[in-house]
Amino acid sequence: MDSATMPGWHWQRGEEHEYLRCDALGHVRHGFFSRNNGGRQPRQLVHVLLDGGSPSGAGRSDVPTVHRSRQIHSSRILSASLATQPWPEVDGLIADGVDQSLWASSADCAPVLLADQRSGRVASCHAGWRGIAAGILSAVVNGLIEQGSASDDLLVALGPAIAGIHYQVERDVAERVAASLGRHGWQALSQEGALGPDSRPGHLRLDIRLAARLQLCRSGVKPDRIHTCPLCTFSDPDHFHSWRRDQRKVVQWSGICSR
Questions:
Q1: What is the bridge-based pairing of β-strands 122-127 and 110-116?
Q2: What is the pLDDT at residue 3?
Q3: What's the pLDDT score for residue 14?
Q4: Which of 16, 111, 137, 222 registers the highest number of CB atoms within 10 A of its CB?
Q5: How far apart are CA 177 and CA 170, in angstroms?
């Protein structure tokens, strides 16, 4: 799928890298990287996000600091300045300074990047079904609000993740995700199209990005400020790793920089 068939999203490509950008977050440096980046880690990838950057970052003196975590499928969040080695066990990071780069890794779970268009404050998080059931997106939004952001100013990009048609889960999983949405959560998931039938008894198909969108909306983010990448990690082996498809523990990175 190229940019012509991805309204609001486009590939940024160089000789040694490629990543997706969400047009709505064009005012901040960010990217959802594919599998085709030579196994580079955030300390190398951050140079790519710089204007005119390259993987080497030669000659640059304004490289943002790198902040990441050891993700544990939780609702734990942390200020970016505290996310240094050894990497803390959290799934959401919120910028608390300038020139910070915040990173999340994913294979089929949803990488989520958030930006306050007024203050320049940003956040990143890793949202799989366990994280959503635990309320990770609500925690990140509330964390931004506690730092002074207004929910009306938040822009959100939901990156490449497994599509609902390929994501079979037990009914109990869907019920736990629904419970995180509060009253009438199951009905909301159904109406949003996040639940689909499955041929295996006691199972459903779950669209985690539609569930994530619902949790963001119920946390005060405006629906038209939430932008979802149309690409599916499971069905696009040329660009993305997928745990469900390959059963291998490899990931792609997503990052965003504060200003």
A1: antiparallel
A2: 46
A3: 83
A4: 137
A5: 11
The four Cα atoms 20, 156, 51, 232 give a dihedral, to 10 degrees, of -10
Helix-then-strand count for the chain, H and E: 7, 15
What does the domain layout of the chain look like in residue ranges?
11-162+225-258
DSSP 68-105: -----SSS-EEEGGG--SSPPS-SEEE--SSSEEEEEE
Q: Is 96 exposed, middle or buried (0-12, 13-18, 19+ CB in 10 A)?
A: middle
Residues of the chain with pLDDT under 50: 3, 52
Partner residues linked to 171 by β-bridges: none
Helix or strand run (H / E) with residue 136 = helix 136-146
Q: Does domain 11-162+225-258 have CATH number 3.60.140.10?
A: yes
> Residues 6 or more apart from 99 whose CB is under 8 A from it?
62, 64, 65, 257, 258, 259
Residue 147 half-sphere exposure, CB side, CA atoms within 13 Å?
Answer: 24
**DSSP-based three-state secondary structure for 199:** coil
